[in-house]
Amino acid sequence: MVYLLAGIINLILLVLIHYLVPDDPSKIEHPQSYFRVIASLPGLIKKYRYLRGSAINAFCLFGLANLFWATLSFLLADRFGYGSAVAGSMGLLGIVAIIAAPTIGRMASTYSPRTNISLSWWLAVIAYVLFTVVTHSMIVLMIGIVILDLSTQFSQVTNQAIIQSLSRHTNSRNNSIFMFSYFFGGSIGTLVGINAWAAFHWTGVVVAAIVLLVVAVINYYWQGVPKQL
Q1: What distance in Å separates the CA atoms of residue 192 and residue 56, rounded to the nearest whole number?
Q2: N or C, which end of the chain is more exposed by having fewer CB within 10 Å?
Q3: What is the 3-state secondary structure of the chain?
Q4: 71, 141 in Cβ contact below 8 A?
Q5: Cβ-contact 75, 124 below 8 angstroms
Q6: Contacts with 219 (C-beta within 8 Å, 6 or more apart), sequence order
Q7: How many CA atoms lie within 13 A of 62 on its CB side?
């Protein structure tokens, strides 16, 4: 009876919202078909230099993160003799980056995107140096994970701020391109990380991380990052 009453109340609220809330003033008067929208994406990639730059940066930085996460269980087993359960619990450290997200957002609005993108690289470098140099300390490993998560957050928030500033009319399509590149980079990072570990263990993972960082830096100077939003 309680669930039925709750359902009726929700239905009434939905009807009221539908009739009382005004239409979005930015509503598209002449919507395009799905296939025309998809066909327009390559043109946006060609048109917006900073969209290309943000997409490549996101590819590299999320790839760097997934390189590590894909091989963390192997690393823990190799160095500490721990299983996958401990590797999974390390994901809880991501709450630090979540808590820091509002501060990172304010920094993206206050400081130059160039500063924030550069910071995302250096955080990734510091994290991988810690993972590589201090090999038998769980505390240092956990600190490195937090730093790597912050690197990913800085990249994500700053890049999305950049693409949202490009064009009000193509925001959703720009974001689609960005998110495709972001998750594609993560997938490639996972694939490369597993194969690098299988072939060369942690050394292979570090080499792959260096390659992604080099690509990110080249992209910074090639496609550029805006001085201000």
Answers
A1: 17
A2: N
A3: CHHHHHHHHHHHHHHHHHHHCCCCCCCCCCCCCHHHHHHHHHHHHHHCHHHHHHHHHHHHHHHHHHHHHHHHHHHHHHHCCCCHHHHHHHHHHHHHHHHHHHHHHHHHHHCCHHHHHHHHHHHHHHHHHHHHHCCCCHHHHHHHHHHHHHHHHHHHHHHHHHHHCCCHHHHHHHHHHHHHHHHHHHHHHHHHHHHHHHHHHHHHHHHHHHHHHHHHHHHHHHCCCCCCC
A4: no
A5: no
A6: 53, 56, 57, 60
A7: 20
pTM: 0.83
Is the Cβ–Cβ distance between 24 and 157 less than 8 Å? no
pLDDT in tens, the chain (229 residues): 544 565 566 667 666 666 666 665 555 555 667 788 888 889 999 999 999 999 999 999 999 999 999 999 999 999 999 888 888 888 888 888 888 888 888 887 788 899 999 999 999 999 999 999 998 899 999 999 999 999 999 999 999 999 988 888 888 899 999 999 999 999 999 999 999 999 999 999 999 999 999 999 999 888 778 877 6
Residue written as token pair 């490195």: 144
Amino acid, res. 216: A
Structure tokens at 119: 């910071």
The two tokens of residue 179 are: 């998110």
d(CA 93, CA 150) in angstroms, rounded, equals 11
Please report the sign of the dihedral spanned by the C-alpha atoms of residue 158, residue 59, residue 186, residue 68: negative
